[in-house]
Amino acid sequence: AQKVTQAQTEISVVEKEDVTLDCVYETRDTTYYLFWYKQPPSGELVFLIRRNSFDEQNEISGRYSWNFQKSTSSFNFTITASQVVDSAVYFCALRLMGANSKLTFGKGITLSVRP
Amino acid sequence: SQTIHQWPATLVQPVGSPLSLECTVEGTSNPNLYWYRQAAGRGLQLLFYSVGIGQISSEVPQNLSASRPQDRQFILSSKKLLLSDSGFYLCAWSRTENTEAFFGQGTRLTVV
Fold it and tell me: Is the pLDDT confidence value at A19 over 90?
């Protein structure tokens, strides 16, 4: 069975600080996808990124960056120079490759960015 | 571009009443469709998923059912709501089972 652990439940930072959201996953499969989603106060989950298990390259998109390390089964998300609009709940998720696979979500991290 | 519509946005229903939440996807064909519930405390639980018309898989035994009468329509139903059915319900779609899912805006259901 798959499992995603987001050990941090709530993080509060001051605007312009950098913040890293941790994600650790468990699976016996060697082929899988990892995802991050953002849930702003409006409730809709917004897709941020997908990585597959074959590609450990880190990715940067503007102020967002992701660090995928298979050796530690981690897929951490860093927001650089945080802004108030980054305040949301962030979910990490795992899906195995193959038919009938399902998204397994972590419990989410509530990020509050104070002005 | 693809869009997903989910309604209503909020709903207050008495215990024992029926439920029907609707979700439609536009701009794509033969999507995989999902219903999730997010109870207080944030965790997302997969309730149902469908890979085609009339094909529904249930993840957890519960008081709810799902149907897919058309390719891009997914309905969540209950004959008699329980207090424990309260929560935030999210519909989602994906192109295949191996790609990211895109979520609707959710329905906040309160059973009183």
Answer: yes
